[in-house]
Amino acid sequence: MRLLHTSDWHLGRSFHRVSLLSAQEAFIDHLVEVVRGEHVDAVLVAGDLYDRAVPPLPAIALFDDALHRLATLGVPTVMISGNHDSARRLGVGARLMERSGIHLRTDPAGCGAPVVLSGPHGNVAVYGLPYLEPALVRDEFGVDRADHAAVLGAAMDRVRADLAARAPGTRSVVLAHAFVTGGEECDSERDITAGGVASVPAGIFDGVDYVALGHLHGCQTITERVRYSGSPLAYSFSEAGHHKSMWLVDLGEDGGVTAERVDCPVQRPLARIRGTLDELLTAPAYASSQDAWVEATLTDAHRPHDPMARLAKRFPHILALAFDPQDAPDDPLVSYAQRLRGRTDQQIADDFVTHVRDRGPDERERSVLRDALDAARLRDPRTEAV
User: Fold this and answer.
1) Contact call for residues 100 and 87 (beta carbons, < 8 A)
2) What are the counts of helices (DSSP H) followed by strands (DSSP E) for the chain?
3) Where is the Nuclease SbcCD subunit D C-terminal domain (predicted)?
4) What angle do CA 23, 25, 26 make, to 5 degrees?
5) For the chain: N or C, fewer Cβ within 10 A?
6) Burial of 231 (0-12, 13-18, 19+ CB in 10 A)
7) What are the angstrom distances between the C-alpha of 142 and each of 134, 148, 156, 193, 372?
8) Is the dihedral angle over the CA atoms 40, 215, 99, 162 positive or is it negative?
9) From CA 84, how far away is CA 385, in angstroms rounded?
10) Are residues 255 and 317 in the same domain?
11) Is 144 buried (19+), middle (13-18) or exposed (0-12) by CB count in 10 A?
12) Is residue 381 over pLDDT 60?
């Protein structure tokens, strides 16, 4: 059986305030052509279909168009909600859509109820595990700890129990939206840390033939059976080195997996350039970046006059400007965001306590901070999961 694994469409997202709607439309066109041209038997979309809980109308229209086109092809499509989606809103009409071969899995209670696909070599049970926010689903799964490993482990126990009751030889696929240990992050993914921990071990998915992951935006292989497709478009300059693609997965009669990458169209490349203003404006080495979306980092010891306007004359698509003066490492003008880059909310809170009273928080205080950060994240309307 041939599967097309994609995720993290983030419909409705912009890139430094530049609309990506036309690029997302081009991706949907490409997706439909790949399904048709590669004789795909089923499409798997592992969450974050939208960029936020209440998406803009053009994003909803594009999603509606994608569903209609996939249904017209007669190819079953299984989709799960991600941490950016509103599970309840996305799941409206799910039972009606199933009649057209569109299977939306947004309810955690349904983790053990697969979409069963039939093929010449027997059935394939496809289990959709929507994004599981630990604090919201711990009661559903009856776990003691409100963390990702506990709730995902309980969900996978339901998957394995259902699979064990099926006919011998039934192949299995799981869709999940999670941060699996060993995956590489980038700046455009929203933090899903809960209880101080964000990642889960790949072994949590043992017992199934293929795991189609979403959440991380880089296409990557955790194991031969556990893969991220990544996002089809770049959503931050940290993805400048990404090769955007989908996985075309062939699931053999014996459950063996072979996979190849299918490139996604690139509307405009990304470039991260670095140097003094004079170097960026004159050096031939930067000519290849003139048609790209550009993030420039200036290394001048002192900030030059009107750098953005001057750079825009050579790089008309420049979107971001940063400063990293090489001769003044302690420059107070270095942005607060730059100083915090790569640090978790927990680390920032711990550093603040240390700064205020000259000693860090003890374990009890860290636990209080952790609980407060989790509660604040759940109250953020952008992270609505229900």
Assistant:
1) no
2) 11, 19
3) 267-355
4) 65
5) C
6) buried
7) 11, 13, 13, 20, 23
8) positive
9) 8
10) no
11) exposed
12) no
pLDDT of residue 194: 73
Tokens of 269: 């490349």
Q: How many structural domains are present in the chain?
A: 3
Over residues 220-231, the mean pLDDT reads 97
Distance CA 40, CA 60 (A): 25
Could you tell me the pTM of the whole model?
A: 0.85
The size of the chain, in residues, is 386
Q: Looking at the structure, tell me whether residues 249 and 105 fall in a common domain.
A: yes
Same domain, 237 and 302: no
Q: Are residues 160 and 237 in the same domain?
A: yes
- Tell me the two tokens of residue 208: 């199934």
Q: Does 274 lie in the same domain as 258?
A: no
Range of the domain at 323: 270-340
Contacts of 154 (CB under 8 A, 6+ apart): 141, 142, 143
Task: Give the span between the Cα atoms of 234 and 243, in whole angstroms.
Answer: 9
